[in-house]
């Protein structure tokens, strides 16, 4: 998909050189341009959020104008602006718009949200379609759209630059998610991390293979990886800006295909388990965005990447393994593998001296039962750090809802023959149980676990549709930006 250039301009909206411009209308308010009022009065143009109509200047012969409903003025926020921008982008694609100019409504964060809504909604993935067979599905047909101009009286240049970087990083994460697992192997993810390093002087890179993972004492990660012939990779990205800043740990689960191992999953929808690397994809691409923006915060990103496959050498139910911090674990369900690879990755992040940790993982189906696809689940051992993560979620529209941890849940994690079990016989509070398990590997560092199993794909927001969402990229960038100011 060709890149869309983004620019800002001051002055009258109608003085643009774009072939199509956008005018928003609010409920119970006159149209901002008098000639559009008859369309609103006749309900040809509607004020409800995301409703669009096309008009032409100069009595129907001039430039196209997309009129978009913005709802109640006092209720318009960045998330609603993303929704409106996606509706506009869809209509613009249908009428073969090449250059689009938005008259930005007054409000904090709205210009950036319009950029995000436009760039995210014009994402397509057709790499494996034969020539002439590409079909954008729910996405906008946007090959013709080359530029987006935003017109506002305020200085919005920096906001637009940040929004463009974040949206493009999120789309890059969606590319990684959408690739089939025979392409997006652990080695492929490591190569993508290396590309980011090559593009940024302030990012360095290490990768550890199967033997090195075992030599570091990562028995839990190694156990998951032992069943696959694809080489596992522990991918480590270190972002070190000149200004330094607080040292954050980003950890992302990257199981590039999860068959369930010996505890094999049902066949229905197993193909979706290529998405089990979504947390790792978000972390990798967020580091690229943070480096591009040169945010003054230090980050160590850890991405444990492996397949989870059944074979004659796979870990078996009942096996006992030892994690990097010395805790022993009964592997009573090989399909509860995410918490095993994360356990060692969290230990590694702690060993690297991170001060605060956030991990992203498609960890439990139970979180979808609890929260659907509207919220990711948040779990934490620190109120202040969790509040910071939740604020970043709210600011980006990647919503998170905190669920509790409690000593009674800890009891569920205790093993009969080892310190812990990765799957309790008591099938209750499964998402909380998994988070409580992870907490045993963070050494009391302030930590937030984000369960994105319900939001990594199938989010069904107008600007990302039902496919891969890239969820978490913008939250991580926003979190780094906020942490740099504290």
Characteristic key phrases:
elongated; 34% helix; six-stranded mixed β-sheet; alpha/beta; single chain; 15 helices; nine-stranded mixed β-sheet; Aminopeptidase; Leucine Aminopeptidase, subunit E, domain 1; 486 residues
Task: Describe the model.
With 486 residues, the protein is of the alpha/beta class. It has two domains: 5-152, Leucine Aminopeptidase, subunit E, domain 1; 167-484, Aminopeptidase (3-Layer(aba) Sandwich). The protein is built from 15 helices and 18 strands. The strands form three sheets. Strands 7, 8, 9, 10, 11, 14, 15, 16 and 18 form a nine-stranded mixed β-sheet that branches. It has a six-stranded mixed β-sheet with strand order 1-6-5-2-4-3. Strands 12-13-17 form a three-stranded mixed β-sheet, with helices on one face. Strand 5, helix 4 and strand 6 form a beta-alpha-beta unit. Helix 3 packs across helix 4. The longest helix has 22 residues, at 157-178. It is elongated and about 80 Å long. It starts with a strand and ends with a helix. The model is unreliable at 136-140 (pLDDT under 50).
- Please give the count of helices: 15
Fraction of residues in H or I helices: 25-40%
Total separate domains: 2
Structural class: alpha/beta
Parts with pLDDT < 50 across at least 5 consecutive residues: 136-140
CATH superfamily caption of the largest domain: Zn peptidases
Span between termini: 38 Å
Examine the secondary-structure arrangement and name the CATH architecture of the largest domain: 3-Layer(aba) Sandwich
How many strands in all? 18
């Amino acid at each position: 998909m060709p890149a869309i250039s983004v620019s800002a301009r001051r002055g009258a909206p109608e003085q643009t050189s774009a072939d199509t411009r956008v005018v928003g209308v609010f409920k119970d308010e006159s149209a901002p341009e008098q000639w559009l009022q008859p369309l609103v009065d006749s309900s040809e143009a509607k004020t409800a959020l995301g409703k669009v109509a096309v008009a032409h200047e100069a009595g129907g012969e001039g430039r196209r104008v997309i009129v978009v409903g913005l709802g109640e003025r006092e209720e318009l926020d960045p998330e609603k602006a993303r929704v409106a921008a996606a509706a506009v982008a869809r209509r613009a694609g249908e009428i073969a718009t090449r250059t689009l100019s938005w008259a930005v409504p007054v409000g904090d964060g709205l210009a950036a949200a319009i950029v995000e809504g436009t760039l995210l909604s014009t994402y397509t993935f057709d790499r494996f379609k034969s020539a002439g067979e590409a079909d954008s599905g729910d996405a906008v047909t946007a090959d013709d759209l080359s530029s987006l101009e935003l017109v506002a009286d305020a200085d919005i240049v920096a906001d637009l630059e940040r929004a463009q970087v974040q949206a493009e990083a999120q789309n890059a994460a969606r590319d990684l998610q959408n690739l089939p697992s025979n392409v997006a192997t652990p080695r492929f993810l490591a190569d993508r991390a290396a590309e980011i390093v090559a593009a940024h002087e302030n990012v360095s890179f290490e990768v550890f293979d199967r033997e090195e993972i075992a030599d570091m004492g990562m028995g839990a990660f190694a156990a998951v990886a032992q069943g696959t012939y694809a080489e596992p990779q522990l991918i480590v990205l270190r972002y070190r800006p000149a200004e330094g800043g607080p040292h954050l740990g980003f950890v992302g689960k990257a199981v590039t295909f999860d068959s369930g191992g010996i505890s094999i999953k049902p066949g229905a929808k197993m193909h979706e388990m290529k998405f089990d690397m979504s947390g790792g994809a978000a972390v990798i691409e967020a580091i690229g965005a943070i480096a591009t923006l040169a945010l003054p915060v230090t980050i160590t990103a850890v991405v444990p990447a492996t397949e989870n496959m059944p074979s004659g050498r796979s870990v078996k139910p009942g096996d006992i393994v030892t994690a990097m911090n010395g805790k022993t674990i009964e592997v009573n369900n090989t399909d509860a593998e995410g918490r095993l690879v994360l356990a060692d990755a969290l230990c590694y992040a702690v060993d690297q001296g991170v001060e605060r940790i956030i991990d992203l993982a498609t960890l439990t189906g139970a979180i979808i039962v609890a929260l659907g696809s509207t919220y990711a689940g948040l779990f934490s051992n620190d109120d202040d750090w969790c509040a910071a993560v939740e604020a970043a979620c709210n600011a980006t529209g990647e919503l998170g809802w905190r669920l509790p941890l409690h000593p009674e849940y800890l009891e569920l994690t205790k093993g009969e023959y080892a310190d812990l079990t990765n799957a309790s016989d008591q099938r209750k509070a499964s998402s909380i149980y998994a988070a409580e398990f992870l907490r045993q590997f963070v050494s009391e560092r302030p930590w937030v676990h984000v369960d994105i199993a319900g939001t990594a794909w199938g989010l069904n927001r107008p600007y990302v549709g039902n496919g891969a969402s890239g969820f978490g990229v913008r939250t991580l960038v926003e979190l780094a930006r906020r942490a740099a100011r504290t």
